[in-house]
Design brief:
Sortase, Chain: A
């Protein structure tokens, strides 16, 4: 039996087909989107979809901060500004206060600055450990059917004796008055009484607030169903 031979024309045709296949494969690899690696996943978390935000309507809520053993602490919304008279009255009940309006913030889950204040050393000291929160710590806010998940991104010190410092605290983008918010933020604020006293600073305002407060700033990263929500 004679061995099978391939004509030169057939060999040229097969070579051309192989070259075309290789070119098509290279083109598909060139235009294929890159895999979402660790850095890409981080970037995606920092740019949450618009659908996770609430309308920003002020409302009462519950706050949970696992790292400092705060579980569903009541947060009362009121019209005002951080640590004013009405806000101090709320905090004196051993719960947290959240101001809204022209000098306050937005409601839970809204675009802008959701501000939550509570006592650290008096009336139960419910925020006594919030100054120890580290970057990345979770802050969970339950409002209605949704749970809003924030991650701590930085710390700010606020002076009650500085109008500029207070404007930065109450800004829609914390620390940047006048900027339009494109994310949801949370400011968890409590007094720096211990630190002030350690430095010999015993100044207080008429509501008993010390000169400084310690703010933990968080960014909204996701929205989940509220596990405690009941339609009844």
């Amino acid at each position: 039996m004679r061995p099978t031979t391939t004509s030169p024309s057939r060999r040229r045709a097969r070579g051309a087909l192989g070259l075309a296949a290789a070119l098509l494969l290279g083109l598909s690899l060139a235009v294929a989107p890159p895999a979402l690696g660790e850095g890409g996943a981080t970037a995606a978390r920092q740019r949450p979809p618009a659908t996770i935000y609430s309308s920003g309507r002020p409302r009462d809520a519950r706050i949970t901060i696992p790292a400092v053993h705060i579980h569903r602490l009541r947060v009362i919304a009121y019209r005002g500004r951080t640590d004013d008279g009405p806000g101090t009255v709320i905090q004196n009940r051993g719960i947290a206060a959240s101001p809204y309006g022209p000098q306050g913030g937005v409601g839970p889950g809204g675009l802008g600055n959701y501000q939550v204040t509570a006592h650290r050393t008096a009336h139960g000291g419910v925020f006594r450990r919030t100054p120890s929160l580290h970057r990345g710590a979770r802050i969970l806010v339950d409002a209605g059917r949704w749970r809003y998940v924030y991650h701590v991104v930085r710390t700010r010190w606020v002076s009650f004796r500085s109008a500029r410092s207070l404007r930065r605290q109450r800004a829609a983008v914390p620390g940047h008055p006048g900027q339009r918010p494109h994310k949801g933020y949370i400011t968890v604020s409590t007094c720096a009484t211990l630190e002030d006293h350690a430095h010999g600073d015993y100044w207080t305002d008429r509501y008993g607030n010390p000169e400084h407060r310690i703010d933990k700033i968080g960014v909204l990263v996701r929205r989940r169903p509220n596990p405690y929500f009941s339609r009844r």
